[in-house]
Amino acid sequence: MTMDRNRMMLIAAALTGVVVLALGFLVGVQPQLVAASSAESQQQSVEAQNATLRESLATLEADNAKLPDLKSELATLDTSVPSQAALSSFLTELDQLAGASGTTVTGFTSSDATAYEPTTTDVAAPAATDAAASDAAGTAPAATAPAAPTAPELVTDPLVTATNFSSIPITVSIQGSYAQARDFLSKLQGGSRLFLVTTFASTGSSEAGDATGVPDQWTVGGLVYVLQDAAATQADQAAETPATTAEGADDASSDTAAGE
Questions:
Q1: Is 208 left (phi over 0), alpha (psi -120 to 50) or beta?
Q2: Which region holds residue 176: left if phi is over 0, alpha if psi is between -120 and 50, else beta?
Q3: Are strands 195-202 and 243-246 parallel, antiparallel or unpaired?
Q4: Diameter over CA atoms, the chain
């Protein structure tokens, strides 16, 4: 009986120890394991975020290094196509270009700004073939004509619309030889303000090869552009009064022609 009682107590003690260990695991160890697993998962997430932030920081540092060049490029583009008419500044540049080319600005006019209209091309219908024409006439086909040159592909930007872009027709009269006029034209097209030349003609020649004669008169027509709508640009034109001194054969005079 004593042995059975001792055995029962040992078994009970063993069971009690197992229960205590199980409860200790459930109450103390398992929460720690869950917390450790959660902390490891959070650590991996934070490390992934840090890697992403390091890449973003490297990109920002690279962009920041380019910032001076980008600002310089923006200033050049802003001068080329300003956000206001700025005809007075353009007229000043014309005088500088004329002086550099040996010509003299004798007249300047600007018409009202017009809204931007996207350029489109018309696709012409294909012409009848030589074979079809020869069959209709009952004669042998003629030699194949050389292929006509194709126009370059037009490039447009949907961000440029009539609500944020306009053009101002400009006419400039200069005095000088043909070579000087061509030099002025070249400098004008390479100037700081974007200028599209549409006409270039002589208004009469009195030089006739004589070095002592009066220089030729030349007219240059074209367009300058403004990064705003036509109504706002016209308001800028009305507020400005660019003037140029016409130095012809007669007395000098000052002509104000903005907004005409």
A1: left
A2: left
A3: unpaired
A4: 149
Burial of 105 (0-12, 13-18, 19+ CB in 10 A): buried
Distance between CA atoms of residues 39 and 47, nearest Å:
12
Q: Are 138 and 185 in contact (CB under 8 A)?
A: no
Phi/psi region, residue 86 (left: phi>0; alpha: psi -120 to 50; beta: rest), is left
Cα separation, 142 vs 174, whole angstroms: 50
* Average pLDDT estimate for 69-77: 84
| Those residues with Cβ within 8 angstroms of residue 63's Cβ, 6 or more apart along the chain or in another chain | none
The token pair at 218 is 């030349």
Tokens of 259: 């907004």
Distance CA 73, CA 85 (A): 20
Beta bridge partners of 107: 173
The C-alpha angle 79, 119, 232, rounded to 5 degrees, equals 45
d(C-alpha 65, C-alpha 57), whole Å: 12
CA angle 243, 248, 250 (to 5 degrees): 110
For 183-241, how does the pLDDT look when each residue is reduced to its tens digit (9 = 90+)?
999 999 999 999 999 999 987 665 544 445 556 899 999 999 999 999 999 998 888 86
Side-chain-side CA neighbours of 65 within 13 Å: the count stands at 5
CB 207 within 8 A of CB 218: no
Residue 170: how many other CB atoms lie within 10 Å: 25
Please count the other Cβ atoms lying within 10 Å of the Cβ belonging to residue 230.
19
